[in-house]
Design a protein that fits this description.
- The chain is of the alpha/beta class.
- Among the domains are: 80 residues, 2-Layer Sandwich (Alpha-Beta Plaits), CATH 3.30.70.100; 168 residues, no CATH class; 340 residues, Calcium-transporting ATPase, transmembrane domain (Up-down Bundle), CATH 1.20.1110; 169 residues, Rossmann fold (3-Layer(aba) Sandwich); 175 residues, Calcium-transporting ATPase, cytoplasmic domain N, CATH 3.40.1110.
- It is built from 51 helices and 39 strands.
- The strands form six sheets. Strands 25, 26, 27, 28, 29, 30, 31, 32 and 33 form a nine-stranded mixed beta sheet that branches.
- Strand 28 and strand 29 form a beta hairpin.
- Helix 5 crosses helix 7 and helix 5 runs antiparallel to helix 8.
- The two termini are 51 Å apart.
- It comes from Halopolyspora algeriensis.
- It catalyses: ATP + H2O = ADP + phosphate + H(+).
- It is found in: Cell membrane.
Length: 1445
């Protein structure tokens, strides 16, 4: 929705006006603030150890005042916290009372704690930022007017020296000691604003205003976060109490990071360079240019912008940043100390259980073990005769435990029923669900140490190093700091340990604030994970910002040395200002990205499957009748407060598109252009860059909207119970504790624990990859594997048969599917075109720089002015900037995406197209991708011989007829709910078999439905021959009831040999990945009833074998992909035999091996990378293992595409270079993770996409040749003619004209055209090297040489027939025409290509022949002979291009 100017202005001014209003309300002379009915008043000396008694006098004095309910000293904040009645006594009066108490308690001469001055609720910081913004904006107005008048300006070296001082630790440190951090910031910022104002530097004033605004937003967001946390702490006074901590001084300062090193170097290098230049040149103005060049503002500004955005984002998500300096230290940390208490939940968990009697129900034992220990109840409290007690005598333990617990730190308990010990338990502290993520984030920072050596937690978590914790934690931190380390501490306990850390992250649990921390999070570890996980990015931001500053300083020094002395400061300031703006923009962008990362959530890991239904309901505070409406609303509100990934806006998507390897090169070219005065060139480059990003963003948002509509269309209502009545809600309104009702055909809307199941079978292939249905029951199941938890239903799976009532235990991202979808979040790899450009740039940029140096040397040897020589050299470098490249690449990708959309493929990211063209390995999921995900009748056996359905003999038709008679009939034409029944019925229809096959006149009388407990389906029917009992079901069950079989059409007894032969045949079919059902019949009496007692004395008719159906086009598609050189890898959670059978049918194996999940786990990453290229089938793999396979393929250099349709495929889809969600039944998780969504069940669309990728490659290759080859030709011509004469070559405007007429429109027309005269088979035969390898390099150099030759020849001929300007114009026309001629002669001419080329020719004629315009570009109108020379050279170049094409 568009935002009005007024609304935007209101949004920008809100933080400023809020800060001013807050300060205006202050009436006290000391730092005070209020929140939630409590006053916080700064008090002197209360933070100093030894002053506890005197501080107590202050609190007691306040408690005697009227209207004061209580007063507590908070030493960590350096204040007294007062609960009071604002109507009776105000904050100002409390401040006066504190001042009075300080005098009589002897604290009046003590200092204030710095923590109070920087507290987020203290308005001083926000007011300072608002004041500096006002000063900068006022200065901006003055500078603008002063430049127009003009008014003499202050030398630019003055603000540069202030900037250097602000960035230098050795100068800023003493200033902070004297004025405090807030005071030092204010003084330096106001001084900088004044200096920039009188130096008339509007760019610097704007940048500083923008930074201060970001800092103000950060401060305001932190204030709001404090108000939320203060309310969360509640009203108890003791939660505000904090005693002074004896924190020793840090042994040395925090080690320098990149920003500090640049600032330290600048304060030394700037004056040294000034002195050296002054001594060499005796010119103060030129020497001052070196002071300007040394200003390292870009380094500091980049980090500050990043930290401000990060602080704002963290505060908005609920994290409390008490000290904003903490976020500025993320780049200098290298050690993390984690308090052992932070990694446990405070509860105990059962690790293992050993029954002591064989006749005990293991599930019941697990239920009671969790009930007594898992809930945190006292283990000594018996319940219904059950109890758990610690084991004192180890000799009573099972032999495997007698040497001690298998879990470090574990303990043993006995599980008793009455006086009888029935099982032994191993119990250990429950690990916080986010522990693994926290340790992974900490390892990203550097060394990890666990504080607390007695718990053995480090050993349990695989952390090798420990340090003393508890009261010794502060000493441990200081010892590490003495080693030169930057230390972060994560702890739930406030005190000296957190206060000693360089970054202290406190975890607030149960309203117990960890005072002394810099950052508050909790009660979980999510905030700690998020903050520590950003340390690598913070280092990157600081390093890049420092690099911007260093490059700017070197460039500024060079510009200060060259050219007139009186403008040396201005020239030196151009790259410094550009780097400052660039660093601010990059830091802001990186900070927005960091702030936008989802906060890690502690997904519940409660073992619901091991608990009884009653225990589950008790833990969820629910009942069999469900939740009340009020309770459901309350839980829905809590759930809605959890942070979700926000929809990407157009602005954000555009900024993300700018994150390209090309952006720095283009921005550098624009900056260089502006530095030499070519502002028009810089504007064009910036416009092209912005337009390219906008086009990519629009394509992405359009695809995301289409995907959103697709997902919304698939939303179905859910039946559940509320207050005992049945209601219907949509899936995203469910909350834990809801009781849902499911029937056949329903999709499971959330993770649920079964309360009741009736004949329930579930298709879990979308989660586990298993194509077989899974029988479910409400009985507890202790199995660890998700696929074996029979008492659980998981989101995204489907009810195939039966009905159920279940309680919701997890929704959204907390479900198994949700956690699976979020397993892999990795950085994107550089795309093919960008990567190829980078490699080409490494060759072309040095070539351009070398050519510029040659041209500069030639001009200097001729005695030309230094400024003129430098200008020509820089113009030549600008010619090398391929400003049209990202535009034409994006246009080509967009055109391909549009063509694919007409074939049912939704491209979410346009760069996916070119990546598809480079795909070298394609990982297919089997179920639902290569197969249809629906079983069908594949083989029929008479017990001795099995034949495919299409080859069945008459005897096999009779088996199918018997199976059909034993199958249920759809009511009123409805589809049968059970897939096995559907497969038999549909298979019989394809064979033309009816129920009366071999049994004329048959019709059904009675039915015994399938149930998991009986494992068969029976039908009682009648025919002309009398009543007949037909049974179909599990082979082991049906065969056990058979006494006879058919042999050559005769009924014979079923002896042991025949029974074994039949079982062997069943086993052989099963090993082929088939699901086997036995079919048997017998004549029945005239009784019309049917029960289990009648299922006996059967005669085996035969067997039917079912399997998932391979998609009809799968084999052809796989063959085409293999022909294109793409390695096909099947990755499935199904059984190895099933996967191998499918792979054989599709010719995927080709001599490669099959590997299972356990085999994969036995290999480390290095071993897996060695063998992964030789494996064609991975079976029985988990979602984590699928992602690991993708990483292994990427490690060996493969460009990997992954297709799938289930939630279990989502991690691998996301991690892959190209993620593809296939089919109308693809789960939301798979679609959300994919780059390419195929909306129809057409696997051949993947082949179409690959063809489009290769086609786009060919188009972009031609466009690259046009762009880069043309630029090389311009460079070659300029160098050659520049060496011959000082008036040779082209000026900056002519170079811009060449690029516009030859690069943008013609190259774009080439890029968007579909490649004509090339068949899909030819495109499939191409590979990465064919498009972007040696062929591209050859095309670039060929085009460059031909273009340079044509222009140079035309220049010589023009010089022989006219003036120097005439020759330059002839050469310009020849150069442009030669490039356009080669473009029109290229393969694949289309009307659009020809039209764009002719339009460029027409524009060239107008520019050259129109006198005023011609003079503007440094040309002269040509006579016919001039046009003849130019067009003749261009024609020769075109013919030469055709000859070597």
């Amino acid at each position: 929705m568009p935002v009005s100017v007024g609304a935007l202005a209101s949004r920008l001014l809100t933080p400023v006006t809020a800060a001013v209003r807050t300060v205006a309300r202050l009436g006290a002379s000391r730092a005070t603030w209020s929140s939630n009915g409590r006053a916080y008043v700064a008090a002197r000396g209360v933070h100093v150890p030894g002053n506890e008694e005197r501080a107590g006098l202050i609190s007691r004095h306040l408690e005697h005042l009227g209207g004061v309910e209580w007063a507590e000293i908070n030493a960590a904040l350096g204040c007294v916290v007062v609960g009071h009645d604002p109507e009776t006594i105000g904050v100002a009066e409390l401040a006066d009372a504190v001042e009075e108490a300080e005098r009589f308690s002897g604290l009046a001469d003590e200092p204030h704690a710095e923590a109070g001055t920087i507290h987020p609720a203290n308005p001083g910081s926000a007011f300072g930022h608002a004041l500096v913004i006002a000063a900068n904006l006022t200065g901006l107005g003055y500078a603008t007017v002063a430049r127009a008048l003009p008014v003499p300006a202050l030398p630019e070296s003055v603000p540069a020296m202030l900037t250097t001082a602000d960035s230098a630790p050795q100068i800023r440190g003493p200033l902070e000691e004297r004025l405090g951090r807030v005071g030092a910031d204010l003084v330096l910022s106001l001084g900088s604003a004044a200096a920039h104002t009188f130096a008339q530097q509007p760019t610097s004033l704007l940048a500083e205003s923008a930074l201060q605004y970001c800092l103000l937003r950060e401060s305001q967001a932190s204030h709001r976060s404090w108000l939320r946390w203060d309310a969360r702490f509640g009203t108890p006074p003791e939660t505000r109490r904090s005693v002074p901590q004896d924190v020793q001084d840090r042994p040395g300062s925090l080690p320098f990071g990149p920003v500090e090193r640049v600032g330290h170097s600048a304060v030394l290098a700037g004056p040294a360079a000034f002195a050296a230049a002054l001594g060499m040149t005796r010119n103060v103005q030129r020497a001052q240019g070196f002071l300007v060049a040394a200003a390292p503002r870009a380094a500091q500004l980049g980090r500050e912008a990043f930290a401000a955005q990060l602080g704002f984002g963290l505060a908005e998500k609920g994290t409390l940043v008490l000290d904003p300096r903490a976020l500025r230290k993320l780049d200098r940390l290298d050690t993390v100390v984690v308090d052992a208490a932070a990694l446990t939940t405070g509860r105990r968990a059962v690790q293992d259980l050993v029954p002591l009697h064989d006749d005990l129900d293991s599930a019941e034992l697990w239920e009671w073990a969790h009930a007594l220990i898992g809930q945190g109840e006292s283990v000594e409290t018996p319940a219904e005769g059950w109890s758990a007690r610690p084991v004192r005598d180890r000799s009573t333990l099972p032999h495997q435990w007698r040497n001690g617990p298998t879990t470090p730190g574990g303990r043993f308990f006995s599980l008793d029923r009455g006086a009888d010990t029935v099982a032994m338990l191993e119990v250990a502290d429950e690990i916080d669900p986010l522990t693994d993520k926290l340790l992974a984030a900490a390892r990203g920072v550097g060394t990890v140490r666990i504080a607390g050596r007695g718990s053995r937690l480090a050993e349990r978590l695989g952390v090798e190093e420990t340090v003393p914790g508890g009261t010794h934690l502060a000493g441990s931190v200081r010892a590490l700091q003495a080693e030169g380390r930057g230390v972060a501490v994560v702890s739930p306990h406030g005190g000296a340990g957190l206060a000693s850390a360089d970054l202290g992250i406190g975890i607030a649990r149960e309203k117990s604030p960890p005072w002394g921390a810099d950052i508050f999070g909790g009660p979980g570890l999510g905030e700690s994970c998020a903050v520590l996980g950003l340390s690598p990015l913070a280092r990157t931001v600081s390093r890049r910002s420092a690099q911007f500053a260093a490059v700017a300083s070197v460039s500024g020094a060079v510009l200060a040395l060259l050219g007139p002395a009186y403008r040396s400061q201005g020239r030196a300031g151009v790259p410094v200002s550009a780097a400052t703006v660039l660093a601010f923009g990059a830091g802001t962008w990186w900070g927005m990205q960091a702030a936008g990362r989802p906060m890690p959530q502690a997904a519940p890991r409660t073992p619901w499957h091991t608990m009884s239904p009653s225990t589950v309901l008790q833990l969820l505070s629910s009942s069999p009748d469900g939740l009340s409406d009020e309770e459901a609303r309350n839980r829905g509100t809590e759930q809605a407060q959890r942070p979700e990934r926000r929809q990407v806006s157009l602005v954000r998507a555009t900024l993300e598109e700018l994150e390209s390897p090309l952006t720095p090169a283009l921005v550098g070219g624009a900056t260089l252009s502006a530095g030499i005065g070519a502002v028009t060139d810089a504007a064009v480059i910036g416009a092209v860059l912005g337009m390219n990003a906008l086009i990519g963003a629009v394509q992405r948002l359009r695809a995301d909207r289409a995907l959103g509509k697709l997902l919304e269309a698939s939303t179905i209502p859910v039946a559940l119970r509320r207050d005992g009545r049945q209601v219907s809600v949509v899936e995203n309104e469910l909350v834990p504790g809801d009781v849902v009702e499911l029937v056949s055909g329903d999709s499971v809307p959330a993770d649920c624990r079964l309360l009741h199941a009736d004949g329930l079978e579930v298709d879990e292939s979308s989660l586990t990859g298993e194509s077989q249905l899974v029988t479910k029951t409400e009985a507890a199941t202790p199995a660890a594997a998700v696929a074996e938890r029979r008492s659980m239903l998981y989101q995204g799976t489907a009810v195939a048969a039966g009905e159920a009532r279940a309680v919701v235990v997890a929704t959204g991202t907390d479900t198994e599917a949700g956690r699976t979808a979020g397993l892999e979040e990795g950085p994107a790899r550089t795309s093919g075109v960008a990567a190829r450009l980078q490699s080409l740039t490494k060759v072309t940029v040095p070539l351009c720089v070398g050519a510029g140096v040659v041209l500069l040397a030639a001009d200097l040897l001729r005695g030309r002015a230094l400024g003129v020589a430098v200008g020509r050299a820089v113009s030549l470098a600008v010619a090398a900037v391929p400003e049209g490249l990202p535009f034409v690449a994006t246009a080509a990708e967009l055109a391909s995406a549009q063509r694919l959309s007409r074939r049912g493929a939704l491209v979410r990211n346009s760069s996916t197209i070119e990546a598809l063209g480079r795909a070298q390995a394609l990982c297919f999921d089997k179920t639902g991708t290569l197969t249809e995900g629906q079983i069908s009748l594949r083989y029929v056996s008479d017990g001795t011989r099995s034949l495919p359905v299409e080859e069945s003999a008459r005897v096999h038709r009779r088996v199918v007829g018997a199976a059909l008679r034993a199958s249920p009939a759809g009511e009123n034409g409805e589809v049968l709910p059970h897939p096995t029944d559907r497969a038999v019925v549909e298979g019989a229809q394809e064979l033309g078999v009816s129920p009366d096959e071999g049994m004329p006149g048959w019709w059904r009388l009675e039915e015994l439905p399938f149930e998991p407990s009986r494992s068969y389906h029976a039908i009682l029917g009648t025919s002309e021959q009398g009543q007949l009992l037909s049974v179909k079901g599990a082979p082991e069950v049906v065969l056990a009831q058979c006494t006879h079989r058919y042999a050559d059409g005769e009924r014979v007894p079923l002896d042991d040999a025949a029974r074994q032969s039949i079982m062997d045949e069943m086993d052989r079919l099963a090993r082929k990945g088939l699901r086997v059902l036995a079919v048997a019949e017998r004549p029945a009496s005239d009784r019309r009833d049917l029960d289990e007692s009648r299922i006996r004395d059967l005669t085996l008719s035969g067997m039917v074998a079912l399997a998932d159906t391979i998609r009809p086009t799968a084999a052809e598609s796989v063959a085409q992909l293999q022909q294109a050189g793409v390695q096909i890898v099947m990755v499935t959670g199904d059984h190895p035999s099933t996967a191998q059978a499918i792979a054989a049918d599709l010719n995927v194996l080709n001599g490669h091996s099959v590997m299972t999940g356990p085999d994969l786990d036995a290999l480390d990453d290095t071993q897996l990378s060695t063998v992964v290229g030789d494996v064609a089938v991975f079976a029985r793999v988990t979602p984590e293992q699928k992602a690991r396979i993708v990483r292994a393929l990427q490690e060996i250099g493969r460009i990997v595409a992954v297709t799938g349709d289930g939630a279990n495929d989502a991690p691998a889809i996301r991690l892959a270079d190209i993620g593809i969600a296939l089919g109308a039944q693809a789960t939301p998780a798979a679609r959300g993770a994919a780059d390419l969504v195929v909306t129809e069940d057409r696997i051949e669309t993947i082949v179409d996409a690959l063809v489009e990728g290769r086609a786009m490659w060919a188009s972009v290759r031609d466009a690259l040749a046009i762009l880069l080859g043309g630029n090389l030709g311009e460079i070659g011509y300029t160098v050659i003619t520049g060496l011959v004469t000082p008036r040779g070559g082209m000026n900056a405007r002519q170079l811009l004209l060449v690029n516009v007429l030859t690069d943008v429109l013609p190259a774009m027309a080439i890029a968007v055209r579909p490649p004509p005269q090339i068949t899909p088979q030819m495109l499939l035969a191409e590979g990465p090297e064919a498009s972007l390898g040696a062929a591209l390099t050859r095309d670039i150099y060929r085009r460059g040489a031909i273009t340079a030759g044509a222009a140079t020849a035309a220049w010589f001929l023009g010089r022989m027939t006219g003036t120097a300007r005439h020759a330059s114009t002839v050469a310009l026309v020849a150069l442009i025409s030669a490039q356009l001629g080669q473009t029109m002669a290229i393969r694949g001419r289309t009307p659009l290509v020809l039209g764009c080329a002719l339009a460029s020719v027409a524009a060239l004629v107008v520019v050259v022949q129109l006198p005023g315009l011609s003079q503007f570009f440094g040309c002269t109108p040509l006579w016919p002979h001039g046009w003849g020379i130019a067009l003749g050279a261009a024609s020769a170049a075109t013919l030469a291009g055709l000859a070597v094409q």
